[in-house]
Each structure stands twice: as C-alpha cells, then as structure tokens.
Amino acid sequence: MLHEEAVLLARHLAVAALAFSLVPAVALADATGDLAQKPGPTGCFSSAGADECTAARGLLVAEAVATSPDGRNVYAAGSGSNAVAVFDRGADGALTQKEGAAGCVSLLGLGPCAAGTAIAGANSVTVSPDGRNVYAAGFLSGAVAVFDRADDGTLTQKPGSAGCVSALPPCSAGKAIVGPEAVVVSPDGRSLYVASTFSGAVAVFDRSADGTLTQKPGQAGCISDTGLGPCADGSALDGAASVSVSPDGRSVYAAAINSGAVTVFDRAADGTLTQKPGQAGCTSEAGTAPCSGGPGLGGAAWVTVSPDGRNAYVASFESAAVAVFDRGGSGELTQKPGTAGCLGKNAACSPGRALDGALAVTVSPDGRSVYATGSVNDAVAAFDRGADGTLAQKSGPAGCISETGAGG
Prior knowledge:
six-stranded mixed sheet; Methylamine Dehydrogenase, Chain H; 1 helix; mainly beta; 39 strands; globular; single chain
C-alpha cells in the first residue's frame, strides 16, 4: 500500500504537466511536433497565480485536463480544490477561466465555485464525444460525478442521484470504484469505463442519450483483480490506474501500477468487456502467469492507443520508461522486439531522457508525435512516431521540456 500511495502522490504532482503541455494555451506544437510554451502568464495557469502563471480557481493539485470535441472549452480536475475548473478556449488556443461560479464546480462551492457532489479529490475528467456531458472521478469520494455541458461549455451537475455514481448516497449505486483514477467514454458514446486503484478493477457503465450512467448488472458491471465486487475475475489489475478505448471501439486497455502490467479486453457492441484469455490478456514486467513478459512495464501507470489504432503506449513509473506495442486486428498487443519495445533507462530499452517516474503518455491527433511525463524530472518528453509506431526521442532540447531545463 505504501508503494501504491507513493506512486499516486507522484502522479498528483505530475500528470497535469502532460495534459497542459498539449493544451495550446500552454504549449504550441509546430508541424514537426516540437513544443514551445506560450510566453509569460499565458503559458500556464496555477492556483493563486504561483510560478508566475495566470491565477485560476479550482486548480490546487491539478491532475488532469480534457478539451471538448468542439475545441471551445478546457476542463481541469484539481484534487486539492475538490473541483473541476472551466475554461473558454480561444481560436489561438488561449485559455480564459469563466467568470464567477461558472468558472469551477467544487465540493463545497468554495472558490467561489458552483457547488458540486462527489468530487472530493477530483483527479480525472473527460468529455463525451458528443460534447453534451463531462464526467469527473472523485478519488476521495469513490465516485464519478456527472455534468451536463451547455453550448457555451458551462457545467451543471445532474440533479439527485443522477448526478453521481458511488457506493454511497446520494449517488446512484456503483461498485468497484474505490479510488477511481481514470474515467473514459467510448468513441461511440455508449459506454463509460473507470479504472479504480484500490478496487483493482475496471468498472463498466452504460451511458444513455442524456448522459446518465447506469452500471451494468452483475459481473458485467466490473472486472477486478480478485473477482470481488462482485465482479468478473480478471488478471493483472492490481492498482488499476488508467483505461483507454481503441478508436474502433473494439478493445479496452488498462494499466495497473502494482501488477506492472497492461491488460487487454475485447469490447462487445453493448460495451461489455471480456479479458482476452491466457497470455493475450496481459503483458507484465515480471511475466507472471497468465501474462506474457515484457520490459519497461514496472509500475505501469498509463496506457493510450494511437489515433490510427495500430499501436499502444504505456508509461511506467518504476521502469522510467515508455513501452511500445503493436496492436493487431483483433486488438491483441505485441511488444516491439528488442530495444524498440521501450524507451528509458532500462538496459533492455532504447535510451530515453526525462522519463524518471514516467506517469502519463499521449499521442498527438495527427499521430506523428508522442509525449510523456517524467514526474521525477518535472518534465515532458517528446518523441517522433514512425509510420510503424516506433518512437525516437527528438534530438537536443526539443526532446524534453522541464522545470529546470535539465533532461535527466
């Protein structure tokens, strides 16, 4: 448990660095994928204007951001503020926090913010593909909060039990979401998945046309490392911290910190998940049965799938690495052979800078670049992505941006 809490603390300090690095108000990426932070206070937002940034409400211990599909708004989860902050995004990517209570939703309405429910320790936020809803994970609440999104991006939490899902009232009933770390909506908008660290599980919800969530009944409602919940029994989900859906909607992947693994699920048309059998169901650093073994997965903390669906990338805290996988036609993952299979300080990997305590990874919309955070380095590492999904770190200073300019 101490190991898990240490990793989560580091995550609390670093994940937002990756997310904000990809928001144009903070960093601009040119045609080559190089990042350049916007100058002066427009280049960052912080609680109370610390670090010479623009002051913003609801950002204490900012952990995650999400951009709306129409590109007009950005939402940030601040676990220390127990809040979701709301920004308007200009044509040039500049951010402006909405005025007054519209600028954030917090547990007690502090900020001043609009008052919300079940967002204590808010640490993950996502926007539905249709742009009509925003969902936030409340780590301390053990809940997922549900918001309606207006045309101007303003958030309103759904009333009553529809406003959140949790094991506790006043929310609608939910299981296997103790310590939720990540929440994601499927590309078709019909399902929502939650990775929960302390439950060691991926929870499965149906999403209705109005954005309301209903957990699937029985064992279809969750897959856990132990089968408790009651959930379907899964493998390599201890410390589940991230979940991602493939662009074609046919596969779901989870990264589990304590298992040091990435798990692979088939997704049915109705959103139900089934873990692939045997070694196809997971790859771990240790290679403990039933998983296959692979380097660069110690403390696997984040998984993402490329926009073309051909690759998956895993950021691993203990390995200080990004692991690289090919994705097959049925969603199976195969780690690239040799040193192409990971980048970092591991002898089995290609060299990688600014990846100490790697906690998050994402792929640019055009698929040409990959970015990862190094929590120990206080840095964002930048990679070129080849046509076959292979990664090569950008040379010189373009290969990373850090608080101090050091590369690690």
